[in-house]
Specification:
- With 158 residues, this protein is an alpha/beta fold.
- The protein has one domain: Dihydrofolate Reductase, subunit A (3-Layer(aba) Sandwich), CATH 3.40.430.10.
- Helix content is 21%, strand content 33%.
- Helix 2 links the parallel strand 3 and strand 4.
- The longest helix is centred in the N-terminal third of the chain and has 11 residues.
- It is globular, with a radius of gyration of 15 Å.
- 30% of the residues are buried.
- The model has no long low-confidence stretch (mean pLDDT 97).
- The structure holds NADP nicotinamide-adenine-dinucleotide phosphate.
């Protein structure tokens, strides 16, 4: 099973502002839900705070070097990427790296596939961005259009 990055990114590579998504596209949220349900999602501590609760029907892995999180069903805290890679070999299904910036960066070398929703906007004053080279070692493999016209592109490691 694969380790897959999944992100929605604006034209200026923005992905977040003030700890939140700087847009609301319900079709993309539905796409995210149907793509990741039944699998494992891995998120950084800031994204965990932003989401505010475990995503249903998924094992939720929260990355943090030192924080502890009150026990919740379906939630696991891991301290480093190596532990997540070990876990990925024992779970049923895929492991989706769901952000944010720090987490995408630290998992970049183990991600085998990217699923990228293109947000047709430029976000002023964004404070979270994708690295400009995040797809450098990947090639485009497929694209699909969501209802409402958003484009989702899939990239595989070369
Ligand atoms: N557009 C999208 O698709 C999308 C998706 C997700 C998030 N976002 C946005 O991204 C922004 C948040 O991004 P962010 O970079 O601030 O935060 P983040 O990646 O969610 O969280 C960062 C924290 O996660 C922990 N962490 C990350 N990598 C780790 C590793 N390898 N080992 C151990 N701990 C690790 C650290 O916590 P400790 O400091 O506790 O050690 C770090 O401070 C928000 O605006 C959010 O809305 C956008």
């Amino acid at each position: 099973m694969a380790i897959i990055g999944i992100v929605a990114v604006a034209e200026n590579l923005a992905i977040g502002k003030d700890g939140k998504l700087p847009w609301h596209y319900s079709e993309d949220l539905k796409f995210f839900k149907r793509t990741t349900s039944g699998h494992t999602v891995v998120m950084g501590y800031n994204t965990w705070l932003s989401i505010g609760k475990p995503l249903p029907k998924r094992l939720n892995v929260i990355m943090s070097r030192s924080r502890s999180i009150e026990y919740k069903e379906r939630v696991l805290v891991l301290r480093n990427v190596d532990d997540a890679v070990v876990l990925s070999k024992y779970i049923n299904g895929d492991m989706f790296i769901i952000g944010g910036t720090h987490t995408y960066r630290s998992f970049a070398h183990v991600i085998e596939k990217w699923i990228v929703t293109r947000i047709p906007e430029t976000i002023e004053n964004a404070d979270a961005f994708m690295p400009s080279d995040f797809l450098d070692e990947f090639e485009s493999s497929a694209s699909e259009e969501l209802a409402g016209g958003l484009e989702v592109q899939t990239y595989l490691r070369e």
